[in-house]
Amino acid sequence: MALDDLSTGGRENVQHLMAAHRFRLVVDTVTHQPVLDRLVQDADTVYHLAAVVGVQAVINSPIHTIETNIMGTAAVLRACSRLRRRLVLASTSEIYGKSERVPFSEEDDRLLGPTSRSRWSYSESKAVDEFLAYAYYKEAQLPVVIVRLFNTIGPRQSGRYGMVVPRMVGQALAGQPITVYGDGRQTRCFADVRDVVRGMVALSACPGAYGQAFNLGSTREITILDLARLIKSLLDSPSEIVLVPYAEAYDDGFEDTLRRVPDVSKVSAAIGWQSTTPLEETILNVASFLRCRPGNP
Predict the structure, then answer these.
(1) What pLDDT, in 10s, does the model give residues 109-129?
(2) Domains along the chain?
């Protein structure tokens, strides 16, 4: 079953599951404790991914970001602790902030900008989520695993909230300019959602992983400018690639992370996991999906 407020998604994303007798979609907020309790009661394992997502959404709605991320996670932890359910908590590579120590390892120090920059509110709210998870593990012996996701991509993902791959793929398919924010030299590592789900499920079933955080992501590093070039080439698109200043794309004083690369040695040692799907394959899958639903980006 799934609980979603549909704020950044839609029923169409799970339409193919609606006929399955074991699937149920409940449209509500994760902070609605009575509903959450009933759903957790019927579950063996809870995968908590309910959070504000996307740089644009974080900047535009800082109150919603902070309240949803922290209060929602607190509600999930309370329910799982009371009912003794396993929990996989989705955190983020944003935890590491603008640290220059690459690749990022789970025990690395964090480096963030000032609190006056709403850009960092997402990182801080997810850090509080992690502190809460560690506290529930230590004090209430809750079987919880934290996964720090690094740019997970795949079909059904929307580009409306700052997700770079579906946005660029949509632009390329439409023959519109492919927009690259900043100078395009910032790098990211993009992991296929199927690989990430496989890792999350395996960690949930590994008692030795409880009470720990794990990076989940690809180790293939690519600049955003090269990503735009790759998408343009793969889709044989006539689109031009255009650089857009951060101040124009977001707001004045926007700070970005120059490199974001995970060290996945810990999760590899724990469950033998690594990201195996080529970036090119995932981009083509995203494009195939968007061709069927051109209004998605």
Answers:
(1) 999 989 888 888 889 999 999
(2) 2-292 (3.40.50.720)
- Collapsed DSSP state (helix, strand, coil) of residue 253: coil
Q: Which of 122, 136, 161, 250 is catalytic?
A: 122
**Active-site residue, 122 included:** yes
How far is CA 267 from its chain centroid?
Answer: 17
List, in sequence order, every beta strand (DSSP E) within 86-235: 86-92, 144-149, 152-153, 178-181, 187-188, 191-192, 213-216, 222-223
pTM of the model: 0.93
CA–centroid distance for 16 within its chain: 22
Which residues is 284 bridged to in the sheet? none
- Which tens digit of pLDDT belongs to each residue from 133-159? 999 999 999 999 999 999 999 999 887
Asked if omega into 103 is within 30° of 0 (cis), the reply is yes
